[in-house]
């Protein structure tokens, strides 16, 4: 196979961004089909990416039919998280490689069922969309920490701010859809599992609806004794800002300070802030999808797998418990050796 025929399920914000990417920027791949609960939205996208006629990108009403289709070699799942479990099982059943946007599924138990089903099939087919791993700045930070030049890494301080979020973005989603990125970053940079999480909820901004706990401040404890903190603030108003500082025995390293045009003028200094994650992480998304296509054509995956999606789901589940109780919550993680052994 020299060209991967890709189908995309869910063409909202992220799915339509991926559709453009696959159709226009990714080598070795062709967008052949899209599916969305909002049918007219899928039709409009297919028309646009087919250059006026819907002949080369077709719309499939039922996502399960898209997954099963003979002319779809691999799938990108950008549907809402609650739809992932059923669609992932369909991908496994049809032997279709899949790049699944986070969260893998809505809870740890169903995520573990996905891990087990994939393992039973004997081939890794699932990659999870933790795209910070593909961001050149995060990748350089990982390389620096792994080189040992700064000694052992002790702490991570993370900041994750969105300009705004819709009113439907409740406290639980801040954990499951936003903080989950730093859950993965901490596991990946430390190469270790998170065993306990505490989610603190400071006084909320007055700009959100009743009961929404925004911002949140979480502390992760890792099995090796290291710790990470993250401020997640999804209605920051100013722009999109994601930073990570690693503190090690002989120094610290920070990424995400903004590498765009930086000006000093009129007694002020500064630069522009990206409006959202598609702008800040455009290169990461491009690399993620290109490497997924390249690896899929080789019959492999090249990025975070189902276990990473499951481990993040388990941490978030404990995070939701901590959000409720205000107390630390232990992460219940299955024994990796037993599950994948
Ligand atoms: C969104 O789904 C993302 O993945 C973004 O990276 C994150 O910043 C945002 O908070 C999420 O809603």
What fraction of residues sit in β-strands? 15-25%
> What structural category characterises the helix and strand content?
alpha/beta
Radius of gyration: 20 Å
Q: Look at the structure and give the CATH class of the largest domain.
A: Alpha Beta
Within the CATH hierarchy, at the fold level, what is the topology of the largest domain?
A: Dihydrodipicolinate Reductase, domain 2
Order of helices and strands: EHEHEHEHEHEHEHEEEEEEEHHHEH
How many helices in DSSP terms? 11
Largest sheet: 7 strands, mixed
Strand order of the largest sheet: 12-11-7-10-9-8-15
Number of E-type strands? 15
Q: Which residues sit in consecutive blocks of at least 5 with pLDDT less than 50?
A: none
CATH arch. level architecture of the largest domain: 2-Layer Sandwich
The shape, in one word, is globular
Q: What molecules are bound to this protein?
A: (2R,3S,4s,5R,6S)-2,3,4,5,6-pentahydroxycyclohexanone
As a percent range, the share of helical residues equals 25-40%
Mean pLDDT: 95
Measure the end-to-end span: 31 Å
For CATH, the homologous superfamily of the largest domain is named as: Dihydrodipicolinate Reductase, domain 2
The tally of domains stands at 2
């Amino acid at each position: 196979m020299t060209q991967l025929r890709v189908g995309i399920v869910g063409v909202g914000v992220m799915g339509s961004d991926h559709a453009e990417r696959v159709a226009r920027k990714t080598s070795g791949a062709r967008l052949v089909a899209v599916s969305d609960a909002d049918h007219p939205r899928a039709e409009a996208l297919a028309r646009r990416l087919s250059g006026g006629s819907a002949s080369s990108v077709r719309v499939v009403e039922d996502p399960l039919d898209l997954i099963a289709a003979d002319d779809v070699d691999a799938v990108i799942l950008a549907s809402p998280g609650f739809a992932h479990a059923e669609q992932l099982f369909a991908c496994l059943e049809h032997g279709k490689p899949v790049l699944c946007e986070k969260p893998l599924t809505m809870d740890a138990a169903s995520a573990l069922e996905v891990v087990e089903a994939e393992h039973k099939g004997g081939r890794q087919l699932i990659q999870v969309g933790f795209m910070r791993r593909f961001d050149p700045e995060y990748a350089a930070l990982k390389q620096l920490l792994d080189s040992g030049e700064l000694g052992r890494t002790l702490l991570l301080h993370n900041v994750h701010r969105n300009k705004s979020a819709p009113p439907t973005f409740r406290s639980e989603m801040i954990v499951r859809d936003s903080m989950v990125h730093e859950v993965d970053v901490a596991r990946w940079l430390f190469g270790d599992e998170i065993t306990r999480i505490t989610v603190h909820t400071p006084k909320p901004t007055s700009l959100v609806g009743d009961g929404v706990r925004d911002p949140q401040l979480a502390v992760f404890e890792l099995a090796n004794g290291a710790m990470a903190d993250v401020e997640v603030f999804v209605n920051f108003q100013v722009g999109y800002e994601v930073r990570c500082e690693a503190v090690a025995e002989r120094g610290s390293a920070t990424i995400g300070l903004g590498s765009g045009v930086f000006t000093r003028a009129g007694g002020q200094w500064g630069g522009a802030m990206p409006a959202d994650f598609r702008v800040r992480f455009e290169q990461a998304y491009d690399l993620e999808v290109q490497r997924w296509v390249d690896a899929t054509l080789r019959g492999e995956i090249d990025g975070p797998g189902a276990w990473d999606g499951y481990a993040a789901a388990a941490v978030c589940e404990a995070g939701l418990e901590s959000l409720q109780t205000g107390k630390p919550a232990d992460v219940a993680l299955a024994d990796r050796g037993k599950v994948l052994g």
